[in-house]
Every structure is written in C-alpha cells, then in structure tokens.
Amino acid sequence: MLSKKASCDSHGQDSSYFLGWEEYEKNPYHQVHNPTGIIQMGLAENQLSFDLVESWLASNPDAAGLKRNGESIFRELALFQDYHGLPAFKKVLVEMMAKMRGNKVKLEANNLVLTAGATSANETLMFCLADPGEAFLLPTPYYPGFDRDLKWRTGAEIVPIQCTSANGFKITASALEEAYERAQKFDLKVKGVLITNPSNPLGTAMTVAELNHIIDFAVEKDIHIISDEIYSGTVFNSPSFVSILEALMQRNLENTELWNRVHIVYSLSKDLGLPGFRVGMIYSNNPAVVSAATKMSSFGLISSQTQYLLSQMLSDKKFTRKYMSENKKRLLKRKEMLVSGLKSSGISCLESNAGLFCWVDMRHLLRANTFEAEKELWEKVVCEVGLNISPGSSCHCTEPGWFRMCFANMSEETLRVAMHRIKVRLVDVHRSRDAMVKPARLSTKWVLQLASNNRRPDR
Asked: Nearest to residue 331, comparing CAs of 403, 272, 417, 266?
C-alpha cells in the first residue's frame, strides 16, 4: 500500500507533453545510427553555445580540477556545506542577474535562496505562499510542467488566466479579473499570480503594459507575484527584457507592501544551457520568505563542487559578456532558420523575441476546430512525420491548433531534416487530401488519457 500522494494521478506525467517524450525515447533520431527515428522538438534545451563553455573550461583547468591557486580544495568542498550556499557563488549570481537586467535593478546576495533547479524553486515558493487548496493564477498557454511543479506535492491549485491569439496571447486586465472571479466560484482563495517572463511556450518578453496590469491587479487584490524569469538571458530581439522588479521601480513602488510580495525564480538551465547542473534560485525582498525558503532548500541543495566551478566561471566578466552576446546571436539565427523553414511550408509562427522555441500556428492543418482534431494532428506528427512537438492543449491553450517547437537542442542539419519532414510528410500530404491515409493511432490508453486530462475544468 502506498500513500495517497504516491498513488494519485495529479503528477501530470500523463499529459501529451510527457507522452510525446516517451515515444521519442523508444525511437530517438540519430543522423547515422537511426536516421528514421523521432526528432526531439519538445525539449527546451540550449545546446548552441557549449563550445564557449568548453573553451573556458579548457583555459581554466584549476576550476574544473577543484583547485585554488594550483592547490587542491577537494577536501574543503567534499565536507558538508551550510545550506545558505557559498557566498562567492551567490555574489556572482546576483551580479549576473543584475547585468541581464541592464544593471537597472540592485540585487542583494542575502535575498537569494539557492535551489536544485527552477522546478524546486517554484515548488518551494508554493509551499511558502499557499496552503493546500489555495490558488495561483497563471496566464495561458503555460509550461505543462507547472501542473506537476506547483500542484502535485503542495496541494495548491492553478486557475488559468485565459489569453487568446486575438492580441498575441497578451495578458489583459479583464482576463485577470475573469480568472479571479472563476476562482471565487470554485471557493478558491487566490494567493497570487505566477508569470513566466519571457513566456514559455510563446517565446515573447512581456510588455511593460502587461506587467503594469499584473502590478495593479496584485495591489488591488493584496496578493503575491511570482515572476519566473529563467529565459531572461535569451531575449535576442526587441523589445528588451523588463523584469518585474524594474517595472516596480519605474513606478516608485520599492517602499510599498507589494515590494515584499514579489518573488523571482531564476536558473542557469536555459541562459547558460546547464540543466544537468541543477542550479536554480529564488530572489525575494521578503525576509520571511527568504528564511522559510532557505530552510526548505535543505531538501534540494546544489553541490559545493558545482557552486565552486560556476562561481569561478561567472566571475570571469570577459567570459560572461562574450557568452551572453554570442548566445543571443546564435539563438536568433537558429530561430530564424525554424521560422523560415516553416514559412516555406505555409506554416506561420507567433512573432517572438526570446526563448528556445516558437509558438507555431497549425490551425489550418486541423480537420476541424476542435481539440480532438488537434490530438489527431499531434499523433500524426509524432508517429508519421517523426517529430515530437508539444500540442497547445498540453499548455492549456484555449484555441486548438497551436504547437510549441524547440530549435536550440539540435544541430542545424537535424533541424533541416525536421523541416523537410514537415513539408513532405505533413504539408504536402495535407494538400493532397485524397492521398492521405488514416493517421497512425497511439495506444487506446494514450487516447483515453489525453481526452480525460488535457482539458480539465480547473485549467
């Protein structure tokens, strides 16, 4: 017998977002060893600038060898470290965060809590700010993993802020109010709004107008704001990134109650392309939140070896300056390659300026304007076209036919193969409807899971 927590199905693993990964893992594409396999376009990893990191490591053997001035510090790092984290590491992290925000925001190392990735940071904030059964509002579409990260162990609830393509999925004051009223109808106490800026899956940096809507709303309702800013260093085109803290400072709100109800999540997984290092953090001006989150961080610490290595790397200002500049150029180039490839097949994308993915409009390829038709198209793309992409329904999009496609986790050659497959196996076949065969069907288990889980009433 297992506990209720272990045996419940609220983890979200049965989402099409994760089911597509399962199919990919059964038959992963390899240019030489498995050229007919499934190409992974559902994973938001940044592999475009590994050579810059590897070059730094080769030039700084002491850091990788856990040495200081040529002397080994292995024993020092091997012993237990206080869960507050290494001071030198926290110092370079807040400096890096400030630089990404144009040094317009002054950040204090004492307000930083280290966590094992952004997943842990978001869950920790849920534990700190919401009791079981209380809710946070999230704009749709949102990252599918939030159903796991925010709800599964905390017992918190998510109420969607329903955004639409009519205005590019931007947040409006009316959408915020409608979500709040919906929560009240379900007798849910709203504790805050959680935003991802830049957005995953949209790939767009939030406008100042959107941030002001959220600020006004939080002031009026006396609630928290969590701003997940893990893609802040990927903004490769205008408009530039504006942090929630900068938006508050523009309105001279530093000495207000709201200042202590705003919390930032950040990590090195996307901007630096190091998800395997599990480096995440919470930044908050609220001493009580910092204290509670620091205590909770003992359940998911970052190794001392990782902290030391990265503190040395990030303290090299010449390296960080070069990396951030070059990485943005490479992301823009690769994004344009995806957009151009899709355009040649008659497929458009939401205009974007950040992230590791595009929000792709495939509504014209649906047999009907329904989520059932979206599921059928997704099955065809996975099983016949050979691409794992994320359907909009897994991101709780209110409109069928949108998909997230990642572009930074593969080589240029693999992306060309993916674009060729879309043209030949999907678009050309769609244009010749008479030649179409019935789409391959995923297992009955999948179909039932998708039908029952992707459109839950509270999402």
From this structure: 272
What are the tokens at 298?
């003992």
Read off the pLDDT of residues 326-359 as tens digits, 9 standing for 90 and up.
999 999 999 999 999 999 999 999 999 999 999 9
Give strand pairing partners of 279. Answer: none
Lookup: tokens for 373: 């038709």
**pLDDT number for residue 454:** 44
| Residue 361, H or E segment | strand 357-361
Cα gap 380→291, rounded to integer Å: 49
Looking only at the bridges linking them, the beta strands covering 112-115 and 280-284 are antiparallel
Amino acid sitting at position 251: R
How many alpha carbons lie under 13 Å from residue 120 in its C-beta half-sphere? 22
* Count of other CB atoms within 10 angstroms of residue 284: 24
- Given a contact cutoff of 8 angstroms between Cβ atoms, the answer to whether 282 and 112 are in contact is yes
pLDDT tens for each residue of 221-256: 999 999 999 999 999 998 899 999 999 999 999 999
Reading phi first (left if > 0) and then psi (alpha if -120 to 50, else beta), residue 396 is in: left
Contact 193, 217 (CB under 8 A): yes
CA distances from 288 to 111, 115, 260 (A): 10, 17, 9
Helices (H), 79-117: 87-100
Whole-number CA gyration radius for the chain? 22
- Residue 191 tokens read as 């504790």
* Residue 209 near residue 172 (C-beta atoms within 8 A): no
Cα distances from 228 to residues 99, 138, 205, 263, in angstroms, run 17, 11, 12, 9
* Token pair for 336: 């344009």
End-to-end Cα distance, the chain: 30
Q: Which of these, 201, 169, 144, lies nearest to 399 by C-alpha position?
A: 169
AA letter at 211 = L
Single-letter amino acid code for the residue at 276? G
| pTM of this structure | 0.90
The alpha carbon of residue 291 and the mean position of all alpha carbons in its chain are separated, in whole angstroms, by 26
What are the E-state strand segments in 165-269? 190-196, 224-228, 262-267
Q: Name residues whose C-beta falls within 8 Å of residue 345's C-beta, 6 or more positions apart in sequence.
A: 419, 422, 423, 426, 427
Report the residue count for the chain. 459
Q: Name the residue type at position 169.
A: F
Which distant-in-sequence residues (6+ apart) come within 8 Å of 329 by Cβ? 236
Please list the active-site residues. 143, 228, 230, 270
Question: How far is C-alpha 344 from the geometric centre of its chain's CA atoms?
Answer: 28
**Measured distance CA(190)–CA(186) in Å, rounded:** 11
Q: Residue 438 gets which letter from DSSP?
A: P
Closest Cα to residue 203, out of 368, 3, 408, 372? Answer: 408
